[in-house]
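Deliverable D2.4 — example input (structure tokens):
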């Protein structure tokens, strides 16, 4: 009987050790459902999955998981202070936090560019605001394009919404738009995959250059302090630079 009790205690202690060794699981949310940021949800393939894997290598006691939500779902959760996690790949300007006061922000993960894309048959070049007058452009529904906002407000520029940047490129190929705004890595991904190099043109002046970072709600600060320390470290930044080098990310 005593032997059975000792064996049972041993099993319980072993189980507790295994349970204690399980890493804490934390969610990193994104709404950028487009390649190369997310190439396949089922296969967990793409730049954002690579970033999450890199974070997991640096922090073996924590298991980060990438979760896809819509931009509106993320905004609503943030507004209600109900987001249980952090947001990956975003910029303070997109969340009305230029002064970095509403949320906690990581160091920049990498720098990116949104391009003016047009048909090679009727190439569009942006020089100044007058370049936009009388044009019809495409943007992703719900996205804000700062360089185009004033011309739209003055009704000098017409906007056509699409569900994705892939759809925008297809509209350009069909010559239904004068130009579209597409992220540089996404443009390169589809141009290479579909052989569109000779059909599309990029303006010499881009729409916008910016950095992507991690947004952490203040209510989640304690959970994500380790992540913020990691993303600010020299070692992590070195590996991040190597990681994004093959994704046509802007310097």
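Example output (designed residues):
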């Amino acid at each position: 009987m005593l032997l059975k009790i000792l064996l049972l205690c041993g099993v319980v202690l072993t189980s507790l050790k295994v349970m204690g060794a399980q890493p804490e699981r934390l969610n990193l949310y994104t709404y950028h459902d487009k390649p190369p940021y997310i190439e396949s949800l089922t296969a967990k393939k793409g730049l954002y999955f690579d970033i999450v894997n890199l974070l997991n290598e640096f922090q073996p006691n924590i298991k980060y998981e990438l979760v896809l939500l819509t931009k509106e779902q993320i905004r609503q959760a943030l507004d209600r202070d109900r987001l249980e996690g952090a947001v990956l790949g975003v910029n303070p300007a997109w969340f009305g936090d230029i002064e970095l006061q509403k949320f906690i922000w990581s160091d920049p993960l990498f720098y990116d560019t949104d391009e003016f894309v047009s048909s090679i048959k009727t190439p569009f070049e942006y020089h100044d605001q007058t370049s936009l007058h009388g044009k019809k452009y495409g943007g992703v529904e719900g996205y804000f394009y700062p360089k185009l906002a004033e011309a739209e407000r003055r009704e000098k520029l017409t906007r056509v919404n699409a569900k994705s940047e892939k759809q925008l490129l297809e509209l350009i190929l069909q010559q239904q738009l004068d130009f579209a705004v597409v992220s540089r890595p996404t443009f390169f991904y589809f141009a290479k995959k579909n052989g569109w190099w000779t059909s599309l043109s990029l303006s010499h002046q881009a729409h916008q250059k910016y950095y992507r970072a991690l947004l952490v709600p203040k209510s989640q600060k304690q959970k994500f302090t380790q992540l913020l320390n990691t993303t600010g470290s020299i070692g992590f930044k070195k590996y991040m630079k190597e990681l994004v080098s093959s994704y046509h990310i802007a310097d």
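Confidence is low (pLDDT under 50) at residues 1-19.
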